Each structure stands twice: as C-alpha cells, then as structure tokens.
Automatic annotation (TrEMBL):
The keyword Aminoacyl-tRNA synthetase does not apply. InterPro entries: ARM-like, ARM-type_fold. The keyword rRNA-binding does not apply. Keywords: Membrane, Transmembrane, Transmembrane helix. It comes from Candidatus Criblamydia sequanensis CRIB-18. This is Membrane protein. The chain crosses the membrane at residues 6-31. Gene3D superfamilies: Leucine-rich Repeat Variant (1.25.10.10).
Length: 350
C-alpha cells in the first residue's frame, strides 16, 4: 500500500512540474512576442522622427524620443543600424552620433573580456555607429574576440577611424582568418578612404618575409580605383608561395600598364594556372601587338580557363588574332582547335 502511495505522489509531482514548465514557456513566449511588437512599433516612430529631423536645417536629437528603458534603447540601436546601411551624408552622421552619445554611450564603455556575449555585442554595435579614438583600447580588445560577428563590427569601426595602429591590428587579424572570412575585411576597406588604403600600402612595404600579411595587403589594396604600383610586386611574382604569386598576378592584371609588361610576361609561364590566366588578362589590356605570340602559345595551355583568356585576347587583336584562331581551328591539335572553334563561333553569333 505504501509503495502505491509513493508512486501516485511521484506521478503527481512530475505532472505539476510539467504543467509549471509548460506555463513558464507560454509566459516567456508571450512576453517575447509582446516585447518584439513594442520594439517594432517604436522603430517605426523613431524612423519617422529621424526622417523629419533630417529634412530640417536645425534639429534637436533629444526631441526624437526618450530612450531610458532597455527595449527603447534596443529599438533605437536596431533603427540606427538599419538606416545606416542606406543613409549617407553629414546631416545623418551628426544625428546618428548625437543619438548614440545621448542614449547608448554607456554601452560603449560596458565591454569587458569576461562579460557576457550580449554585452560585448552591444558594445561593438554602439562603437560601430559612433567610433572615436577614445574607443581605441576597447576596439583593440574587440578585434581579438572569439566571436567572428563581434570582430566584424570592430573591423568596420577601426577602418573608419583611419588610425595607423588599428589598421595594422586589423590586417594582423586578417592573416589569422580563413580565406572565406577575409571578405569581411575586404568589404570594410572598400568603404575606407585613400588615407586608409595608404596605411595598408605602408604595412605591405614593411611586411618583409611575412607572406600572409603581403597577401592580405594586396587583397585589400585591390579595392582602389588607381594605385601607384609598389616595387615589391616583382619579388611577389617570383615568390615560392603560390598564393602570394596568384594574388600578385591578379593585382598586376587589374592595374596593368606598360611598365608591368615584363612581369606579366614572366607570370605567363608560371606553374600555377591562375597566375598564367591573370597574366594573360593583364597583357590583353595593354593592346600591345608584341603580346600576340604569348596568346598564341597559351592556346595550347592544359587549363581551359587560360586557353579561353588567350583566345579571347586574340579575338580582340583584330585580323592578326582572328587569323591565328582560324589556323588553330583547322589544326589537328584538339586542345587549341576546340577553343578556337568555340570563340570564333561565339563571335559570329554576336
């Protein structure tokens, strides 16, 4: 009889615990949905107030709203981040920074290496919206964070500040990332100024035997429209590091000019097919008749991508190039025959 009573009591307790757990989950979900709806409505009001303020010549950022509560601050932060992707100009920059200083500056100083992930994230997000040299020490720590998301926010802020030490720190961090993650650094520098990219060029020149740093610097510098080619490129094209040769040849191909022809000719015989392909692309941009024999030679390259670029270059060399392609089309060499026929047929279709 005692055992039966114990069994029923245990069953009753388990049922009560389950009911309490279900009720707790329902309440948590309810409050989360309620909080999201409040934030959503507040974001719409903030957006409207900001749009109105930007249309005025003089405005008081404090009139946009009161953001003393946590959910209000979260709504403001989310709104500023969304608008910052589309809004540009001095008026927007002033208003954004004023709102951060008035309402979110405490979060910029809340960072600590042992803090919770959310605290670190909020600190990085607020600094990203209003970076200043006062945040330099915090940014240096954020750049070393384990979370890639937190690091990416710190990267954007560091690049915007144009500080030499921070730029060096960002490039150092880039060398530790996988190739797939380097795009975040590249995108950050794309929005950087000429001064920022000049600082990258300085680091490249001082990189010495640090091949990985040279690779990252070249990758970043390709964001520029125009650039004075550094003398160190010659050494990079001859490097034993294949990845460095590939990025250097890509750099030369993008900024090809008469003085780089010798390096491109040298690269056209490289062991890496990517280097040979980039060399052909760079030589094709020079419009130099002396490059025709090089293109003809690469029609027999074992890699299709190289053959295609060589054939395409010949196609753009006028009658001389087309004559070579027609000759290869009628040849018995299946490698050059196929690419010549493909390009000639495609050009006729156009």
């Amino acid at each position: 009889m005692k055992f039966e009573n114990i069994y029923y009591v245990t069953l009753l307790i388990q049922s009560l615990v389950l009911i309490i757990a279900i009720i707790s989950i329902v309440f948590i979900a309810f409050f989360q949905i309620r909080s999201k709806n409040k934030i959503k409505k507040l974001k719409a009001k903030i957006t409207q107030s900001i749009n109105t303020a930007l249309l005025q010549e003089e405005y008081d950022p404090s009139l946009i709203g009161n953001f003393s509560k946590k959910y209000q601050q979260e709504a403001l932060l989310l709104t500023l981040e969304e608008l910052n992707q589309n809004f540009k100009g001095e008026n927007w920059d002033r208003l954004r920074k004023a709102l951060v200083k008035q309402n979110l500056s405490a979060y910029k100083k809340s960072y600590h290496p042992n803090a919770f992930w959310k605290t670190k994230t909020w600190a990085a997000r607020c600094i990203r919206l209003d970076p200043s040299l006062e945040d330099k020490e915090t940014l240096e720590k954020l750049l070393n964070e384990k979370s890639f998301y937190v690091r990416s926010l710190a990267i954007d802020a560091s690049v915007e500040l144009e500080d030499k030490e921070l730029i060096s720190k960002v490039l150092e961090g880039m060398t530790k990332e996988t190739k797939a993650c380097r795009y975040v650094y590249r995108n950050a520098f794309m929005s950087g100024t000429k001064k920022t990219l000049d600082l990258v060029l300085e680091d490249y020149k001082k990189a010495g035997n640090n091949d990985l740093l040279r690779i990252c610097c070249l990758d970043v510098m390709m964001c520029q429209v125009q650039i004075n080619l550094p003398d160190q490129l010659a050494g990079d094209i001859l490097s034993s590091n294949q990845e460095l040769r590939e990025i250097a040849s890509q750099f030369l191909a993008k900024y090809s000019r008469r003085e780089t022809r010798d390096l491109l000719v040298l690269a056209s015989d490289d062991l890496s097919w990517k280097v040979r392909k980039n060399a052909i692309i760079g030589l094709a941009r020079l419009n130099n008749p002396e490059n025709v024999p090089i293109f003809e030679k690469r029609l027999c390259d074992p890699f299709w991508d190289v053959r295609f670029e060589a054939g395409n270059a010949l196609l753009n060399c006028g009658d001389q190039g087309r004559a070579i392609l027609r000759m290869q089309e009628s040849s018995l060499n299946p490698i050059s025959h196929d690419i010549a026929r493909y390009l000639l047929t495609s050009s006729y279709d156009k």
